[in-house]
Design brief:
173 residues; mainly alpha
């Protein structure tokens, strides 16, 4: 988990970069499979940078602070605010749901689609079924692994914090 602004910035860049990549590919494949638009790498490369910029700004300025406020309220309510695994699950879950909510709207607007309740609902459902597993099973673990390898131990510690010292972990596996 990030411990300072520099680590949070790196973690956000990793998460946004990989999530935008995975979700862009997912949406392009869905459009191809449904016969709307044939898959083309040009579409991916054309939309990646604008999608990354929007996702990064949303994460840093709106979604991140909002999701963390809600997540920590939930963690305190269920008395799990001191458990690392609970923080990861709740923060990642709220972040993913909020990002799907905003980025689904962005995708419709960016691609010139009409934004109706029906089109937005379809986009949101299409995205959430991929975003949650992608976030929890692929992108989050990879980002935390990379960040952990780059982190230096805190003063007075020999190793970087990890799950080895979390006595709750065996009870959830």
């Amino acid at each position: 988990m990030p411990r300072n602004f520099k680590e949070a910035l790196l973690f956000t860049i990793l998460m946004c970069g990989m999530m935008v990549c995975g979700m862009s590919l997912w949406n392009l494949l869905i459009l191809d499979w449904t016969g709307v638009v044939p898959f083309a790498w040009g579409h991916f490369f054309q939309g990646y940078l604008p999608g990354f910029v929007v996702a990064f700004l949303l994460d840093m300025l709106l979604v991140g602070p909002l999701a963390k406020t809600i997540a920590f309220a939930i963690l305190h309510k269920v008395k799990a605010h001191d458990k690392r695994w609970a923080k990861i699950l709740v923060i990642s879950g709220t972040m993913a749901l909020f990002m799907v909510t905003f980025m689904s709207l962005y995708g419709l607007v960016y691609n010139g689609q009409s934004v109706t309740l029906s089109s937005y609902g379809r986009a949101w459902l299409t995205n959430v079924i991929m975003a949650l597993p992608l976030n929890f099973l692929v992108v989050g673990p990879i980002s935390r692994f990379i960040l952990g390898k780059l982190q230096k131990p805190l003063p007075g510690k020999e190793v970087v914090e990890n799950f080895e010292d979390d006595d709750e972990l065996p009870t959830i596996i």
